[in-house]
User: Which sequence fits this backbone?
């Protein structure tokens, strides 16, 4: 009777582990976004994270009758990358990012995490 119980507990723990890995650590996508850096800030109550926003060229479709710009909100994993962004707000950047399926409080407020600057103008 004890052996089937241990096997069931092991399978359940394995499934929970796979779910947590997939939700928070699996890189769903990665790429490069370009645009003007609107802001770079360090914020948070318990976990201070680096956050930023790019305004991309072009116009999106907002509410009926309005035009909005494309915005890319992101978190930054590396303090050195954040320092570069903070010192050059308003410039054009090409940022490499990784997209996760979920957010972690110590990683940032968004599922997009910038890990390096590809180009700055």
Assistant:
């Amino acid at each position: 009777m004890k052996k089937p119980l241990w096997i069931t507990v092991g399978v359940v723990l394995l499934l929970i582990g796979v779910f947590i890995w997939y939700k928070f650590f699996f890189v769903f996508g990665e790429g490069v976004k370009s645009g003007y850096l609107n802001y770079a800030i360090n914020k948070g109550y318990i976990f201070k994270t680096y956050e930023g926003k790019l305004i991309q060229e072009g116009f999106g479709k907002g509410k009926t009758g309005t035009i909005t710009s494309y915005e890319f909100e992101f978190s930054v994993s590396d303090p050195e990358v954040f320092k570069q962004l903070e010192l050059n707000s308003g410039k054009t950047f090409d940022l490499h990012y990784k997209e996760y399926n979920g957010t972690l409080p110590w990683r940032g407020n968004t599922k997009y995490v910038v890990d390096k600057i590809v180009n700055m103008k």
Notes: The CA atoms of residues 37 and 89 lie 5 Å apart. The helical segments are 2-24, 79-87.
